[in-house]
Amino acid sequence: MKKFALMLLLMLLFVVVLPGHGQAAAGQNKILLDGQELTAGQGVPVENVNNSIMVPLRMIAENLGYKVDWNQTSKTVTIEQQGKTMQLIVNQTAASVDGKTVILNTAPLLRNNTTLVPIRFIGEQFGLTVKWDNTKKIVELITPQVPDPNIDTGEGNGGGGGVVVPPGEPASNLSMINGISFNENRLSIALEGNVQPSVSKMSGPDRIVIDLPNATFSDVFGSGQALDPNLNGKLEITDYPDVSGIRYSLYSTDPYTVRFVIDLNTAKNYSVDISGDSSKLIVVDLNAQSTVDTSTQPGNSGRKLVVLDAGHGAKDSGAVGVTGKYEKNFNLAVILKAAELLKQENKIDVVLTRSDDTFLELKDRAAMANNLKADLFISVHANSSGSSAASGTETYYQREASKALANVMHKYLVEATGLSNRGVRYGNFHVIRETKMPAVLLEVGYLSNRKDEALLFTEALQNSVAASMVSGIKEYLGIQ
Ligand SMILES: [Zn+2]
């Protein structure tokens, strides 16, 4: 208690003693700490993004007195306070608190080289009460009267802006499950890491249980599939008579285990196939000869599987814009937004080749789509040219079979960017050449052009490009 009071006093002194930062935030939003207005710093206003109040990182450091560290290369924010460590990464909803994975409602973002972070989530993690008055646009931070030593986990389901995964071993070295799909009586699980699944058949009711040790769901799994705050979800299966549904959950955190259950209408045999190196695909195939029901029905009239590919990643930044922005970040932002929209489509499954700033070989991207027997493959990029005047939107195909998809996607994409229409073009790109399904590569705009670059890094443009991709995919697949 004494220690807490001292800390609180130091925090308040810190606020009072820094008159140089006394101006109000540039925006209309205000932040009060125990009734006292805080400064946003650097003239970057507080923003309301999807109902998450985002504040400049510097404000946290200067006004709340938390220890804040920023890693420019990995775009990672580390915040330490009261022995607790939190890590957030720009454009990623997966964060960690003391090594445990946490899913944020809104990812940290960059504005004019200032990192904005969700204040509610951070405040609540460190024991502050956070209130938002939407009429007056005021965020109120209230320090607790009596510190609660257990103010740690377990309150994630409140309005905390995030979900705290129950405690267990640290989330390092865990395999990350990126997505699943069910096609032709096969459950495919895409993941990164080394996993030996344990698969067993159970009866009463009939089901197949797949346990993946040392695994958890990546942030992108929740973008592609239903996943509730307690990390449970369900894939509705309607087109396969043998299967009534597929359930999944983070079954245990000690040790970390993800469990998939294929609920069966009739007892089935199965075979398991594992392929890939660091990006793995586990396929549980129900087409194996059944001891009970000898008729196999690999119906393929069901859900469609779309693989979305964010170009480049990690050490490969892709094109670098006139003001130094990286193509890889643009590509990923658009792909995550498109995946979020596609999740709402009940006839489409989506799997992403990458869900964060990781590096993936081109052949692994194509192999992932081929192994999954995806119906469509769409890669998002931004272009660059020696001429700073070059501007506009292009869509590329490599194989004849992809041309119709390219035409449909381009129609919506051009409308979404509002940039000049540079047409549907042939391009000998690896990922659209080596994939076996209709595949296109979108060059949304030119990062070498000042106007295009600025536009491409706006939330509005990224949202409309994502929406245009969904429109194109649905029209091409004939889904209403
Ligand atoms: Zn590119």
UniProtKB/TrEMBL annotation:
<dbReference type="Pfam" id="PF01520">
    <property type="entry name" value="Amidase_3"/>
</dbReference>
<dbReference type="InterPro" id="IPR036582">
    <property type="entry name" value="Mao_N_sf"/>
</dbReference>
<feature type="signal peptide">
    <location>
        <begin position="1"/>
        <end position="24"/>
    </location>
</feature>
<keyword id="KW-0732">Signal</keyword>
<dbReference type="Pfam" id="PF11741">
    <property type="entry name" value="AMIN"/>
</dbReference>
<protein>
    <submittedName>
        <fullName>N-acetylmuramoyl-L-alanine amidase</fullName>
    </submittedName>
</protein>
<dbReference type="InterPro" id="IPR002508">
    <property type="entry name" value="MurNAc-LAA_cat"/>
</dbReference>
<dbReference type="InterPro" id="IPR012854">
    <property type="entry name" value="Cu_amine_oxidase-like_N"/>
</dbReference>
<dbReference type="InterPro" id="IPR021731">
    <property type="entry name" value="AMIN_dom"/>
</dbReference>
<dbReference type="InterPro" id="IPR050695">
    <property type="entry name" value="N-acetylmuramoyl_amidase_3"/>
</dbReference>
<keyword id="KW-0378">Hydrolase</keyword>
<dbReference type="Pfam" id="PF07833">
    <property type="entry name" value="Cu_amine_oxidN1"/>
</dbReference>
<feature type="domain" description="MurNAc-LAA">
    <location>
        <begin position="366"/>
        <end position="474"/>
    </location>
</feature>
